[in-house]
Design a protein that fits this description.
Largest sheet: 9 strands, mixed
CATH superfamily of the largest domain: Leucine Aminopeptidase, subunit E, domain 1
Shape: elongated
Number of domains: 2
Number of helices: 8
Length: 289
């Protein structure tokens, strides 16, 4: 069961929480016994005292387990004007949540050609890129307008690219931008999308990235946010586990992201939220960071 797995992967946090809760309840029981003796409380049998002690232990575990299972967000470091959070969630829901009007930056990892089609096996509809496209585009006119906006944005910031041959990429656009290139889209509802170029396609249209290129991409994202973020909260999904060669786990990618953010903490001027997809709760323990 998922909740048992979550307790297992958060074992160290669960133990610390248990000790804290058990200590608190034991202290309260000790205070009570300072005013009333066991006899005054009508508790004389050793068996009954053992039952009470066992009850405190069981209650401590239940409370501790509940705290671990309920917590979906963890602050890992920060100060008065900036903080880094790891939290469970869905980056697509955050990007298209019309109920809240607060300004925020949503990072969408895309391929470095900034392709805009889920047809011909180019972009998987299950990927973050594909899900974002299906929510953002409702017609061919929308696709053309979005492509023009992205091209204009990349042109304005003098983004570097190289033309690739059709034989090396038989579908989609043929301008491949540098790793970490960002196209910024400002929406009327206060949402700012950072389309973050991370992966590239091989001749079989399979997305991939080297570890070095991924490092460059993540560092470029941090630098761009430092220069243009204006202290607006940024939400970035844990990404790269399925495109890095050799393959890495989601836990590995999260650790790498956190480590690089710690190194660059002087460049962070706002809250950054690292989003672990909610389906990964049984695989990734955010509370241990």
């Amino acid at each position: 069961m998922n909740f048992l797995t979550r307790l297992k992967i958060n074992g160290k946090v669960l133990f610390k929480c248990f000790v804290s809760v058990w200590g608190t309840l034991s202290a309260l029981a000790s205070i009570l016994l300072d005013f009333f003796s066991w006899d005054e409380l009508g508790i004389q049998k050793v068996t009954l005292k053992i039952i009470i002690f066992s009850g405190i232990v069981i209650l401590s575990f239940i409370v501790s387990a509940s705290i671990v299972l309920i917590r979906n967000k963890k602050s890992i470091f920060g100060d008065t004007d900036k903080e880094i959070f790891i939290q469970y969630g869905d980056i697509i829901e955050l990007g298209f949540d019309n109920r809240r009007k607060d300004k925020k930056i949503i990072v969408i990892p895309v391929n470095r050609c900034f392709d805009l089609s889920c047809e011909n096996n180019l972009i998987s509809e299950k990927s973050i890129h594909g899900q974002w496209l299906n929510n953002y585009i409702s017609s061919e006119k929308d696709r053309v307008e979005l492509h023009q906006k992205i091209e204009q944005c990349l042109s304005d910031c003098n983004a570097e690219y190289k033309e690739i041959d059709f034989m090396n990429k038989k579908s989609g656009y043929l301008k491949r931008y540098s790793s970490g290139t960002i196209a910024e889209l400002n929406e009327t509802n206060g949402i700012i999308f950072y389309l973050w170029g991370v992966s590239e396609f091989d001749s079989n249209l399979k997305a991939n990235s080297t570890e070095f290129d991924y490092f460059i991409a993540l560092q470029s994202l941090i630098d761009y946010y430092d220069a243009h973020g204006q202290c607006i909260d940024l939400y970035c999904p844990v990404f790269g586990d399925h495109i890095i060669r050799p393959t890495r786990s989601t836990e590995d990618m999260l650790y790498f992201m956190v480590s690089l953010l710690r190194i660059n903490k002087q460049k962070i001027h706002g809250n950054i939220h690292i989003i672990v997809h909610e389906t990964k709760k049984a695989d990734v323990a955010i509370l241990k960071y």
